[in-house]
Amino acid sequence: MSTVDRPTVTVETLRRMKAAGERITCLTAYDASFARVLDEAGVDVLLVGDSLGMLIGGHATTVPVTMDEMVYHGRAVARGCRRALLLVDMPFMSYATPEQALRNAARLMQEGGAQAVKLEGGRTQAETVRQLAARGIPVCAHLGLQPQSVHKLGGYRVQGRAPEAARAMLEDARTLEAAGADLMVLECVPSALAREITAALAIPVIGIGAGPGCDGQVLVLYDALGITPGRVPRFARNFLTDGRDVRGAVQAYVEAVRTGTFPSPEHELA
Ligand code: KIV
Protein backbone atom coordinates (compact mmCIF):
# COMPACT_ATOMS: atom_id res chain seq x y z
CA MET A 1 0.00 0.00 0.00
CA SER A 2 1.48 3.38 -0.93
CA THR A 3 1.57 6.19 1.62
CA VAL A 4 -1.26 8.12 -0.04
CA ASP A 5 -3.53 5.05 0.09
CA ARG A 6 -3.00 4.61 3.80
CA PRO A 7 -5.78 5.69 6.12
CA THR A 8 -5.49 8.85 8.14
CA VAL A 9 -3.79 8.40 11.49
CA THR A 10 -5.90 9.03 14.61
CA VAL A 11 -5.21 8.44 18.30
CA GLU A 12 -7.19 5.21 17.87
CA THR A 13 -4.82 4.12 15.07
CA LEU A 14 -1.87 4.69 17.41
CA ARG A 15 -3.53 2.66 20.15
CA ARG A 16 -4.06 -0.20 17.67
CA MET A 17 -0.42 0.06 16.58
CA LYS A 18 0.68 -0.31 20.21
CA ALA A 19 -1.56 -3.35 20.66
CA ALA A 20 -0.16 -4.89 17.45
CA GLY A 21 3.45 -4.14 18.42
CA GLU A 22 3.93 -1.81 15.40
CA ARG A 23 6.35 1.00 16.18
CA ILE A 24 5.05 4.56 15.87
CA THR A 25 7.13 7.17 14.03
CA CYS A 26 7.06 10.85 14.93
CA LEU A 27 9.13 13.86 13.86
CA THR A 28 8.78 17.55 14.60
CA ALA A 29 7.61 19.79 11.75
CA TYR A 30 7.40 23.55 11.66
CA ASP A 31 6.34 24.42 8.09
CA ALA A 32 4.23 23.15 5.18
CA SER A 33 7.11 22.05 2.92
CA PHE A 34 8.80 19.78 5.45
CA ALA A 35 5.37 18.59 6.63
CA ARG A 36 4.67 17.35 3.09
CA VAL A 37 8.00 15.49 2.93
CA LEU A 38 7.43 13.84 6.32
CA ASP A 39 3.81 12.99 5.57
CA GLU A 40 4.69 11.41 2.22
CA ALA A 41 7.44 9.34 3.88
CA GLY A 42 4.78 7.78 6.13
CA VAL A 43 5.67 9.48 9.43
CA ASP A 44 2.69 8.70 11.70
CA VAL A 45 2.69 11.82 13.89
CA LEU A 46 3.88 15.33 12.99
CA LEU A 47 4.68 17.25 16.17
CA VAL A 48 4.63 21.03 15.96
CA GLY A 49 6.96 21.21 18.93
CA ASP A 50 7.66 24.36 20.89
CA SER A 51 11.29 23.49 20.08
CA LEU A 52 10.50 25.82 17.17
CA GLY A 53 11.32 28.67 19.55
CA MET A 54 14.93 27.48 19.59
CA LEU A 55 15.25 26.14 16.04
CA ILE A 56 13.19 28.68 14.10
CA GLY A 57 13.31 31.62 16.51
CA GLY A 58 16.88 31.24 17.75
CA HIS A 59 15.90 31.46 21.44
CA ALA A 60 17.98 29.69 24.11
CA THR A 61 14.93 27.87 25.54
CA THR A 62 11.29 27.14 24.67
CA VAL A 63 10.05 29.53 27.37
CA PRO A 64 9.51 32.59 25.10
CA VAL A 65 7.25 30.71 22.64
CA THR A 66 3.76 32.22 22.34
CA MET A 67 0.32 30.88 21.45
CA ASP A 68 0.30 33.03 18.29
CA GLU A 69 3.53 31.35 17.14
CA MET A 70 2.14 27.86 17.77
CA VAL A 71 -1.05 28.72 15.89
CA TYR A 72 0.92 30.12 12.94
CA HIS A 73 3.23 27.09 12.63
CA GLY A 74 0.41 24.61 13.34
CA ARG A 75 -1.62 26.07 10.48
CA ALA A 76 1.38 25.93 8.14
CA VAL A 77 2.11 22.28 8.99
CA ALA A 78 -1.59 21.40 8.60
CA ARG A 79 -1.43 22.61 4.99
CA GLY A 80 1.31 20.06 4.22
CA CYS A 81 -0.19 17.18 6.20
CA ARG A 82 -2.55 14.64 4.58
CA ARG A 83 -2.20 11.40 6.52
CA ALA A 84 -0.25 11.93 9.77
CA LEU A 85 -1.80 12.92 13.08
CA LEU A 86 -1.08 16.60 13.73
CA LEU A 87 0.02 17.11 17.34
CA VAL A 88 0.71 20.66 18.55
CA ASP A 89 2.53 21.71 21.72
CA MET A 90 0.85 23.98 24.23
CA PRO A 91 3.52 26.60 24.97
CA PHE A 92 4.79 27.77 28.37
CA MET A 93 2.06 29.16 30.63
CA SER A 94 -0.73 28.54 28.12
CA TYR A 95 -2.23 25.83 30.40
CA ALA A 96 -1.56 27.15 33.91
CA THR A 97 -5.23 26.55 34.83
CA PRO A 98 -7.75 24.11 33.32
CA GLU A 99 -9.84 27.07 32.03
CA GLN A 100 -6.83 28.61 30.28
CA ALA A 101 -5.90 25.20 28.85
CA LEU A 102 -9.40 24.70 27.42
CA ARG A 103 -9.34 28.12 25.77
CA ASN A 104 -5.88 27.67 24.29
CA ALA A 105 -6.34 24.03 23.22
CA ALA A 106 -9.51 25.09 21.41
CA ARG A 107 -7.50 27.80 19.62
CA LEU A 108 -4.80 25.31 18.60
CA MET A 109 -7.50 23.06 17.14
CA GLN A 110 -9.71 25.70 15.52
CA GLU A 111 -7.02 28.06 14.22
CA GLY A 112 -3.85 25.93 14.31
CA GLY A 113 -5.15 22.70 12.73
CA ALA A 114 -4.21 20.55 15.75
CA GLN A 115 -5.79 17.12 16.04
CA ALA A 116 -4.22 16.63 19.48
CA VAL A 117 -2.37 18.85 21.93
CA LYS A 118 0.69 18.10 24.06
CA LEU A 119 1.40 19.50 27.50
CA GLU A 120 4.24 19.01 29.95
CA GLY A 121 3.80 17.98 33.56
CA GLY A 122 2.91 15.18 35.94
CA ARG A 123 -0.03 14.60 38.27
CA THR A 124 -0.53 18.35 38.78
CA GLN A 125 -1.87 18.40 35.20
CA ALA A 126 -4.38 15.58 35.82
CA GLU A 127 -7.39 17.90 36.26
CA THR A 128 -6.47 19.81 33.10
CA VAL A 129 -6.11 16.57 31.13
CA ARG A 130 -9.46 15.39 32.53
CA GLN A 131 -11.22 18.57 31.41
CA LEU A 132 -9.66 18.55 27.93
CA ALA A 133 -10.47 14.87 27.44
CA ALA A 134 -14.05 15.38 28.64
CA ARG A 135 -14.52 17.91 25.84
CA GLY A 136 -13.19 15.63 23.12
CA ILE A 137 -9.68 17.06 22.88
CA PRO A 138 -7.02 14.36 22.45
CA VAL A 139 -4.14 14.99 24.85
CA CYS A 140 -0.53 13.87 24.79
CA ALA A 141 1.16 14.08 28.19
CA HIS A 142 4.91 14.79 28.39
CA LEU A 143 7.00 13.35 31.25
CA GLY A 144 10.70 13.05 31.96
CA LEU A 145 12.68 16.09 30.92
CA GLN A 146 10.22 18.96 30.60
CA PRO A 147 12.05 21.71 28.71
CA GLN A 148 9.55 24.42 29.72
CA SER A 149 10.80 23.91 33.31
CA VAL A 150 14.49 24.22 32.40
CA HIS A 151 15.06 27.19 34.72
CA LYS A 152 13.64 25.22 37.65
CA LEU A 153 15.53 22.04 36.69
CA GLY A 154 18.81 23.92 36.23
CA GLY A 155 19.60 22.29 32.87
CA TYR A 156 18.65 19.63 30.35
CA ARG A 157 19.31 16.45 32.35
CA VAL A 158 18.19 12.83 32.40
CA GLN A 159 15.15 12.47 34.69
CA GLY A 160 14.05 9.54 36.86
CA ARG A 161 17.46 8.10 37.75
CA ALA A 162 16.92 7.90 41.50
CA PRO A 163 14.52 5.13 42.62
CA GLU A 164 12.05 7.56 44.24
CA ALA A 165 12.03 9.79 41.13
CA ALA A 166 11.42 6.72 38.95
CA ARG A 167 8.53 5.63 41.19
CA ALA A 168 7.03 9.13 41.05
CA MET A 169 7.26 9.20 37.23
CA LEU A 170 5.51 5.84 36.93
CA GLU A 171 2.78 7.10 39.27
CA ASP A 172 2.46 10.34 37.25
CA ALA A 173 2.13 8.30 34.05
CA ARG A 174 -0.63 6.14 35.53
CA THR A 175 -2.46 9.20 36.88
CA LEU A 176 -2.36 11.01 33.53
CA GLU A 177 -3.58 7.93 31.69
CA ALA A 178 -6.45 7.55 34.18
CA ALA A 179 -7.27 11.26 33.68
CA GLY A 180 -7.80 10.63 29.96
CA ALA A 181 -4.46 11.21 28.19
CA ASP A 182 -4.38 9.46 24.81
CA LEU A 183 -0.63 9.49 24.29
CA MET A 184 2.55 10.10 26.24
CA VAL A 185 5.98 11.45 25.37
CA LEU A 186 8.89 10.40 27.60
CA GLU A 187 11.97 12.58 27.20
CA CYS A 188 15.47 11.80 28.52
CA VAL A 189 14.53 8.88 30.75
CA PRO A 190 16.69 5.80 31.51
CA SER A 191 15.74 2.99 29.11
CA ALA A 192 14.70 0.57 31.86
CA LEU A 193 12.25 3.07 33.37
CA ALA A 194 10.84 4.00 29.95
CA ARG A 195 10.29 0.31 29.23
CA GLU A 196 8.52 -0.16 32.56
CA ILE A 197 6.22 2.85 32.00
CA THR A 198 5.46 1.72 28.42
CA ALA A 199 4.48 -1.74 29.66
CA ALA A 200 2.34 -0.30 32.47
CA LEU A 201 0.19 1.88 30.18
CA ALA A 202 -2.44 0.98 27.58
CA ILE A 203 -1.89 4.29 25.76
CA PRO A 204 1.04 4.60 23.32
CA VAL A 205 4.31 5.93 24.73
CA ILE A 206 6.65 7.77 22.37
CA GLY A 207 10.24 8.16 23.51
CA ILE A 208 12.99 10.66 22.83
CA GLY A 209 16.21 9.78 24.57
CA ALA A 210 14.25 7.02 26.32
CA GLY A 211 15.67 3.93 24.65
CA PRO A 212 14.17 1.29 22.37
CA GLY A 213 11.50 -0.01 24.77
CA CYS A 214 8.84 2.62 23.97
CA ASP A 215 5.97 2.14 21.50
CA GLY A 216 7.43 4.74 19.17
CA GLN A 217 10.13 7.36 18.72
CA VAL A 218 10.20 11.08 18.15
CA LEU A 219 13.16 13.18 17.07
CA VAL A 220 13.51 16.88 16.48
CA LEU A 221 13.63 17.13 12.68
CA TYR A 222 16.73 19.33 12.67
CA ASP A 223 18.60 16.75 14.81
CA ALA A 224 17.58 14.00 12.35
CA LEU A 225 18.92 16.13 9.49
CA GLY A 226 22.09 17.18 11.32
CA ILE A 227 21.35 20.91 11.05
CA THR A 228 20.74 21.80 14.70
CA PRO A 229 23.14 24.59 15.64
CA GLY A 230 25.35 23.96 18.67
CA ARG A 231 25.24 20.91 20.89
CA VAL A 232 23.28 17.93 19.56
CA PRO A 233 21.79 15.57 22.16
CA ARG A 234 23.56 12.23 22.57
CA PHE A 235 20.36 10.31 21.83
CA ALA A 236 19.96 11.89 18.36
CA ARG A 237 21.19 10.54 15.04
CA ASN A 238 21.86 12.39 11.78
CA PHE A 239 20.07 10.45 9.01
CA LEU A 240 21.18 12.86 6.25
CA THR A 241 24.29 10.80 5.54
CA ASP A 242 25.50 8.18 3.05
CA GLY A 243 24.52 10.32 0.04
CA ARG A 244 20.85 10.56 1.04
CA ASP A 245 18.73 13.62 0.22
CA VAL A 246 16.20 14.99 2.72
CA ARG A 247 13.42 12.63 1.56
CA GLY A 248 15.84 9.69 1.79
CA ALA A 249 16.92 10.73 5.28
CA VAL A 250 13.32 10.90 6.51
CA GLN A 251 12.58 7.52 4.92
CA ALA A 252 15.68 6.07 6.59
CA TYR A 253 14.46 7.39 9.96
CA VAL A 254 11.00 5.83 9.44
CA GLU A 255 12.58 2.52 8.44
CA ALA A 256 15.02 2.55 11.36
CA VAL A 257 12.26 3.17 13.92
CA ARG A 258 9.92 0.59 12.39
CA THR A 259 12.60 -2.10 12.29
CA GLY A 260 13.96 -1.21 15.72
CA THR A 261 17.46 -0.25 14.54
CA PHE A 262 16.98 3.25 16.02
CA PRO A 263 17.60 3.97 18.81
CA SER A 264 20.61 1.68 19.12
CA PRO A 265 22.64 1.20 22.34
CA GLU A 266 24.84 4.27 21.74
CA HIS A 267 21.69 6.48 21.86
CA GLU A 268 20.52 5.12 25.21
CA LEU A 269 20.78 7.10 28.44
CA ALA A 270 21.36 5.12 31.61
O1 KIV B 1 9.14 20.62 21.33
C1 KIV B 1 9.53 19.52 20.93
O2 KIV B 1 10.16 19.38 19.87
C2 KIV B 1 9.25 18.35 21.77
C3 KIV B 1 9.99 17.09 21.48
C4 KIV B 1 11.37 17.20 21.98
C5 KIV B 1 9.29 15.89 22.01
O3 KIV B 1 8.48 18.43 22.68
Overview of the structural elements:
By secondary structure, the chain is of the alpha/beta class. Helices cover 40% and strands 14% of the residues. The chain is built from 11 helices and 8 strands. An 8-stranded parallel β-barrel has the order 1-2-3-4-5-6-7-8, surrounded by 8 helices. Helix 5 links the parallel strand 3 and strand 4. The longest helix is centred in the middle third of the chain and has 17 residues. The radius of gyration is 17 Å and the shape is globular. Bound molecules: 3-methyl-2-oxobutanoic acid.
Helical fraction equals: 40-55%
Number of helices: 11
Radius of gyration: 17 Å
Beta-strand content: 5-15%
- Uncertain regions spanning at least 5 consecutive residues: none
Category by helix and strand content: alpha/beta
- Please describe the biggest sheet, giving its number of strands, its sense, and whether it closes into a barrel: 8 strands, parallel, barrel
Strand order of the largest sheet: 1-2-3-4-5-6-7-8
Instruction: Name the overall outline.
Output: globular
List the bound ligands: 3-methyl-2-oxobutanoic acid
Write the layout of secondary structure elements.
Blueprint: H1 11-20, E1 24-28, H2 32-40, E2 45-48, H3 52-55, H4 67-80, E3 85-89, H5 98-110, E4 116-120, H6 126-134, E5 139-144, H7 150-153, H8 163-179, E6 183-187, H9 191-200, E7 205-208, E8 216-219, H10 221-224, H11 246-259
Parallel strand pairs: 1-2, 1-8, 2-3, 3-4, 4-5, 5-6, 6-7, 7-8
Helix pairs in contact: 2-4, 5-6, 6-8, 8-9
The protein binds 3-methyl-2-oxobutanoic acid.
The site of 3-methyl-2-oxobutanoic acid has 11 residues, from strand 6.
